[in-house]
Design brief:
The protein is α/β, with parallel strands linked by helices. 31% of the residues lie in helices and 26% in strands. The protein has six helices and ten strands. It has helices at 36-53, 70-87, 96-107, 153-158, 194-202, 217-223, and strands at residues 3-8, 14-20, 23-30, 60-64, 91-94, 115-121, 126-132, 138-146, 161-164, 180-182. α1 runs parallel beside α2 (70-87). It is globular.
Length: 229
């Protein structure tokens, strides 16, 4: 049984959650944007107080590791590392695009043969995206792409694909395939992380606290060639 503090700061939303065996016990969220430096410390303090008040033992910290906002990820990962150092517990890194996939899988009526395409907004018509099946097996690696009307046309010919995340809205009028489905209002949140964090904990999939770095958007911009798919 693992008690995990989950931290998500990859977008304008700041959130933290305490989970036990993959179940949410406590969570806090702020949607006001660009206030992570002020809010995250308060959220973590309240989360740790919740753990202490219930005489729980904190076993790990899970942090959403991008792609996402440079400032947001830097704040989230720095705080996560500090807690891990201070408590002598392991660090778990959860890809932000996987965090996004949890919400439609849990709360939407997804076709059995469907694929999931989470999107994080970048500049102009560029998004950071990957492709997953319903078991969260990654079928396309995370990459920065420029969206046009041929985007994932081969996959769309074979499967319904659900597009969601803060980059999906600007693609709605461009991806016109009949198998393209769009879900609005999907945001990566700490309360969507517990099942993924618990799975990683059981596999002991931990990161080196001293050297771990998240996947900043700037890293994708520098290293990923823009390509039309």
């Amino acid at each position: 049984m693992a008690t995990i503090l989950n931290i998500e700061t990859s977008t304008a939303v700041c959130s933290a959650a305490v989970s036990c065996e993959g179940e949410i016990e406590f969570h806090l969220e702020d949607y006001n944007g660009n206030s992570h430096a002020n809010n995250l410390g308060v959220f973590i303090k309240q989360s740790l107080e919740f753990v202490a008040d219930r005489q729980m033992q904190l076993d790990a910290v899970a942090v959403s590791c991008g792609p996402g906002s440079y400032t947001g990820l830097r704040i989230g990962v720095s705080m996560a590392k500090g807690i891990c150092f201070g408590h002598g517990i392991p660090l778990i890194a959860i890809p932000t695009l996987e965090v996004l996939c949890v919400i439609p899988l849990l709360y939407e009526d997804i076709d059995e043969s469907a694929l999931l395409c989470p999107m994080i907004d970048a500049r102009r018509m560029e998004v950071y995206t990957a492709l997953y099946d319903r078991s969260l097996h990654q079928l396309r690696e995370t990459s920065a792409v420029v969206i046009n009307d041929n985007f994932m046309s081969d996959e769309l010919d074979k499967h319904p694909i659900y597009f969601f995340g803060n980059g999906a809205g600007k693609c709605r009028d461009i991806i016109n395939h009949p198998n393209a489905r769009f879900i609005d209002g999907i945001t990566p949140l700490a309360k969507s992380m517990p099942l993924l964090a618990e799975k990683a904990y059981r596999k002991q999939d931990f990161k080196d606290v001293a050297y771990f770095e998240p996947f900043y958007l700037k890293d994708f911009i520098a290293s990923t060639p823009k390509k039309l798919l």
